[in-house]
Structure formats: C-alpha cells, structure tokens
Amino acid sequence: MEASRQLNNSLRPDDGAALVTFSSAVQVRVPLTRDRSAIAAALGSLSGEGPTAIRDAVWAALQLKPGRRLANDGAGVH
Fold this sequence. Notes:
Layout: H1 2-10, E1 17-22, E2 26-33, H2 36-44, H3 54-63
Helix pairs in contact: 1-2
C-alpha cells in the first residue's frame, strides 16, 4: 500500500490515474481522474487479504485508458 501512496503523491497535476483493486473480484474504486485526493482517500480504506484475480484486474485497468479498447476472445488479448 505504501508504494501506491508514494506513486499517487508523485503524480504531476496533469497526470491521470485510476484505482483498480482486486481480490477474488475486480473493482474500479476510482475511475480515471486527476483528483489525487480521491485516490488517496480510497487507498486509505483498503486492506490486503485473501486470493487475487490479478489477470482480471489488469484487464479492467487496460480498459480505462481513453481511446483504447482491447478485445479478448478467450485465446488472447488483441
């Protein structure tokens, strides 16, 4: 969590960021924004535990990039 806080604190004012969390399910906690305080508040409410769905989390994060959508046919990402 500390690395996430440090990353959030290092963002420039014009940088966009989002917060996607995952355990057994993926959640977009904060959609793409320039509001670092919204991300900081969401980070403060998190705790780590249990199994993870990292593949689904990476997929969800990639979908947040404006103008870029990926397709997954089950055999790979295109």
